[in-house]
Design goal:
This protein is mostly helical and about 300 residues long. The protein has 13 helices and two strands; from the N terminus they run H-E-E-H-H-H-H-H-H-H-H-H-H-H-H. A two-stranded antiparallel ribbon has the order 1-2.
Amino acid sequence: MTKKLNTSGVQRWEKKWGLIFISPWLVGFLAFFLGPMIASFIFSFFNYNLIQPEATAFVGIDNWKRALVDDPVVMKSIAHIFEYTLISLPVSFCFSLIVAFLLNNEYVFGKKVFRALFYLPSMIPLVASVLIWQGIMNEQTGWFNLILKQEGLPGVRWLSSSKWIYISYTLIGLWGCGNTILIFLAGLQGVPKELYEAATIDGANSWQRMTAVTIPMMTPVLFYNLIINVISLMQFFLIPMVINNGNGFPNGKTNFPMVYFYRQAFSYFNMGYGAVIAWIIFFIGMIFTIVLFGTSNKWVFYANDKN
């Protein structure tokens, strides 16, 4: 009985100090995440203008009806982000994974230097990186077009053509893949060497070892990076805002949901309508996340999974 009481006392002591240590995070979460989320949901039912807060009026579901039914720009912006995701996600994902494989190869010379070089761009402020790439992709003086002209090829309207704009954004995104590469590299280094040795003894070649050992053991990392990248793409904002000033140029192709939200909330000061767009973005990201988690048991392998 005394042992049970002592154990219970230790648990209460650990619980108390655990709450004390996480209290800064709890306060920050309540004040800066949960509180604003609840406030924005309430605002979505009001006609609330930052310039004239005294004119705030309850409009019920009118803002939701406008966004989902009456405003075609919302659906077009969602279609644009889906189109961009279909281009950007596979390219950035495969690029990061291939680079991680190369950086993990035992025959690569100077791996530590290359790892640092690939990660360094992600440390540069994104606005500065975007401005650099804007210069590189300049139609008249950019390096890309100068190289093409040296080879006798016509220049490309990288940032002003609806045909090339998503490819250009994808190339800019590759510049900041350092975090994804680092996570993939950690996953590769976490694969037990004993599995490779066993596969080699069984006569597996390099390709068979990769498909039968590396990829299955990497699926949790692939799953994690997939979710992070999908959520990040749903919030894609800074690059079109810096390069195209959030005006949707060219031909509305860069009018993504987060850009449209920003314009409604902070350019036109329609906070109620902007809150609706923000919640639509949230619901889309949540649906994708639920689908990925729902299908993960069919392709994500965990080493300690007993099923």
